[in-house]
Every structure is written in structure tokens, then in C-alpha cells.
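User: Reviewer 2 asked us to show a designed sequence for the structure in our supplementary figure. I'm pasting the C-alpha cells here. Could you produce the per-position amino acids so we can include them in the response letter?
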């Protein structure tokens, strides 16, 4: 589970002070499942397992004070308290094949923590425990990320290849054609490959493959576990701006695009946003589609690279 925002910056400051080897290699995080080798053919199953926890709500925790695993191992970490029962529940949901081996050695008890220093000298461990005895931060853990280690790059950093935003998962049409929705901050490998092979509607956001923002947001619709529609955008203040929209060519006309937009409105409302804005070709089919859903023009833009003028269509939500 990743730690974000000002809390992550504070933790990185502690990691820097302790000379933590993870600084610059992996973002501050709470490990739910230890590193494991996964075969390439199992990746889609792993991605679907990670998506399955999107229906869980974000977890409120307390981070700190400092603790250590010494003398067993010279690691200094920040204790994670608060709703640790829910953290353990997430771990149980994820700690199954193929994310863990079918047969595995006996594990030590799960200790929720955020590591700030590894291979720390004993005098520095004692100093850190004393200095950080009262250190506590309140945090909301809202993102579960799947990371892959880069064996080629210097220092072998870990990069996020998929994630889910907790509280964004939902399913409609139970008992008939089920459509599931999952929110994330990036397109995972399966969805990215599908989106690249799926033409956009009226070139909406063709120039954007990932959200051009420090606060990206993606919502993907799945039918029978396969990506069927996706909206890619970013949070800007109280609004979510959608820069890229894809609906599977084989499923157009089934109402999935409209279901995706309504699910997007519910998801961004839960994030505290009050407006959704799409950019599209002026007077194109997407503008007509969004107008039918209650969206209206809020801005006009110059022509894009294809010579077509663009518009922004917005709607208040919540």
C-alpha cells in the first residue's frame, strides 16, 4: 500500500537521515505481499487479483513511532497502528497464488510497518529509536500498488506497473451482463495494450496516453474480467478532467459508455470532487453522447493536430 502526499515527503526525510537504501528505489509503502517471481503468463491473473480489492474502502492508520527488527535484522521502521485489522484483511485477500507460491515456508507474524532504514548501524538504530519515540502521523492508505523490480537500471529500482484506488470498485448488472468498474492512477499492462489497440471516439484525447498531472485518475470497465471501456484523466482542484476515452469497438451501442460515465461520476464524488469535464471534437459524436448525459459546453479550443476544433464539456456531480 503506497503512502502519498505530505506524509510520504516526511517519511522520505527520515529515510534520507538514516541513509535508507530504499530512498529513490521505491516509494514509501506498507508491504502486503513480499517480493515473488511471477511467470509472464500469470501476469493477467495477478492484475485481476489486485483489482479485486478495489471494493475495499481506504484505511485510516497511524504511522509511527519508530521500531526496529534488530538484532534479528538491522532495520528501522515506523510502526503502523490504527485499523490494522483491515490492513491484515487486505493482505489475506492478496496473499494467494499466483502472488504467493502454492507451497511456501513458514512465515513470521505479519507486522504492518513502513521501513525507513535497512542495514543501519547499531548506534544509529538506538539514536533513531530515541529521537522518533514520539513520532506519529495520521494517514489514509487509499492505493494498493503492484510493483516490478527493474533488473537492468542502476540500483534496481521498483516501479509501479498497476494499482487500484480503494473504494472505486463497483459492479452493475448482477445476474445479467455484469460490468465491473475499477479506479486506478495508471493504465496497467493489460488495459494499456487494449487501449492502444482500440480507436478513440472522435479522437478524444488521442494525444494523451497517460494523464498529464501529478494527480491522475483512471476508471476502467470490465466485462467478464476483460477491459471494455476506460476513461483517463486527472484531478485538478475540485474537478476531474478526462483526456482519453475508449470503448471497445465490439461493445459499442450496448450502453457501456454511459455506464462508465455514471460510474466515473460516482467515483469522483467519493473523492470529494464536484465536477467532471471531458475534452472532445466540437460537434462530433462524443459531444452528442455527452450532451445526452447532461454535459454542456464550458470552453472552446483551437483545432488540434487533425485540424478539428475542440471543446470542453462539463457537468456538476454529487
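Assistant: Here is a per-position design you can include in the supplement:
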Amino acid at each position: 500500500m503506497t503512502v502519498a502526499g505530505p506524509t510520504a515527503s516526511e517519511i522520505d526525510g527520515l529515510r534520507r537521515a538514516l541513509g535508507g537504501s530504499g530512498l529513490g528505489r521505491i516509494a514509501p509503502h506498507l508491504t502486503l505481499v513480499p517480493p515473488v517471481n511471477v511467470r509472464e503468463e500469470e501476469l493477467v491473473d495477478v492484475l485481476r487479483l489486485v483489482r479485486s480489492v478495489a471494493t475495499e474502502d481506504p484505511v485510516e492508520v497511524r504511522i509511527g513511532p519508530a521500531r526496529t527488527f534488530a538484532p534479528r535484522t538491522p532495520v528501522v521502521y515506523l510502526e503502523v497502528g490504527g485499523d490494522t485489522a483491515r490492513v491484515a484483511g487486505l493482505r489475506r485477500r492478496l496473499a494467494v497464488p499466483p502472488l504467493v507460491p502454492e507451497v511456501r515456508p513458514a512465515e513470521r507474524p505479519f507486522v504492518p510497518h513502513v521501513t525507513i532504514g535497512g542495514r543501519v548501524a547499531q548506534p544509529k538504530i538506538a539514536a533513531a529509536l530515541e529521537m522518533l519515540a514520539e513520532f506519529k502521523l495520521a494517514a489514509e492508505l487509499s492505493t494498493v500498488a503492484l510493483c516490478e523490480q527493474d533488473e537492468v537500471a542502476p540500483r534496481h529500482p521498483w516501479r509501479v506497473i498497476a494499482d487500484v484506488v480503494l473504494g472505486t470498485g463497483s459492479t452493475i448488472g448482477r445476474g445479467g451482463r455484469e460490468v465491473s468498474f475499477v479506479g486506478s492512477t495508471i493504465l496497467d499492462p493489460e488495459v494499456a495494450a487494449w487501449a492502444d489497440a482500440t480507436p478513440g471516439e472522435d479522437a478524444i484525447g488521442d494525444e494523451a496516453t497517460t494523464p498529464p498531472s501529478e494527480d491522475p485518475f483512471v476508471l476502467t470497465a470490465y466485462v467478464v474480467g476483460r477491459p471494455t471501456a476506460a476513461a483517463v484523466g486527472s484531478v485538478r482542484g475540485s474537478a476531474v478532467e478526462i483526456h482519453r476515452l475508449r470503448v471497445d469497438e465490439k461493445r459499442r451501442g450496448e450502453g457501456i459508455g454511459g455506464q462508465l460515465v455514471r460510474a466515473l461520476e460516482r467515483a469522483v464524488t467519493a473523492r470529494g470532487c464536484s465536477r467532471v469535464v471531458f475534452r472532445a471534437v466540437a460537434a462530433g459524436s462524443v459531444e452528442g453522447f455527452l450532451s445526452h448525459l447532461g454535459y454542456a459546453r464550458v470552453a472552446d479550443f483551437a483545432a488540434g493536430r487533425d485540424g478539428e476544433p475542440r471543446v470542453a464539456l462539463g457537468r456538476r456531480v454529487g
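For the response letter, you might also mention the following. The CA atoms of residues 86 and 118 lie 27 Å apart. The first strand starts at residue 59 and ends at 68.
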